[in-house]
Specification:
Radius of gyration: 17 Å
Order of helices and strands: EEEEEEEEEEEEHEE
Number of strands: 14
Largest sheet: 7 strands, antiparallel
Helix content: under 10%
Amino acid sequence: MFGTYFERTNLDGPSRTRLDSDVKFNWKTGSPFKGWRNEHFSVRWTGSFVVPHTGDHVFFTESDDGVRLSINGKRLINNWAEHEKTEDKTTVRLEAGKRHDLEIEYYESTGDAVIQVQWQGPEHKRQNLGTLKLFPPSGAMSGYDARSLSQVGLRVGVILRDGSYLACLLYTSDAADEED
């Protein structure tokens, strides 16, 4: 999932992006990035997924604080309020082999920061979202040959010094070379 991390709770302001292989985070009172704020931030994950079997699928969110989940443009979970760790769930009929658009929004106010998304299919027990075949949004990785990079064990994108992940192609850099 392509995650955009915002320095405000309303999904705007300065941001960082990275590619997350799952939405399963318990930052407790910490933060998503080293040296970054640990309260009053928000995240929007976008991408798509494929389910292995056609039928009713249940999606579960566990969050502290607000969470929204949309599939194929339809908001199915909307608990956009401050609350302690809470589970929400929704059921949706999905077709196997077809890409389904997914958007997950989360905000952290104060205290513990927790967000986790799980799914359960007609022939599958409840499990983490990352066990589905996940794709970043179209165009998020244009310019990369993802297959060749993954064959040598590299993830598509650039890992920055602070550990965050930039999931887009860099054409130039304005940074001057540093002398040792």
